[in-house]
Amino acid sequence: SGFGSRVSSLEGLPDCVERITLPGGMYVHVTQREFNGDNPSLPYDVAFNHMDRLYFAEHPEYEFDDSRKVIARFRQANCASVFVPVRHRGGEQL
Asked: 50, 53, 63, 76: which one has the fewest Cβ atoms less than 10 Å from its Cβ?
């Protein structure tokens, strides 16, 4: 799972552990190699401003799925990954 650990049951988890259920569907994973001084906003810039050129131009059968949210995964206060929701242009969910 790109979003963290999957669990079969939330029973018995301490109250300090956040519980979140994510919607299903297909996501494009945008990530960057992390070096000292990386700008953590770069994956966001790709996700919101460059997907047409970097992904959809090569995959015209898919489009941004605006019924779901872009999801960010953080690692040590930097944005390590962004997951962009996409759907097949025919309307079917894969």
From this structure: 76
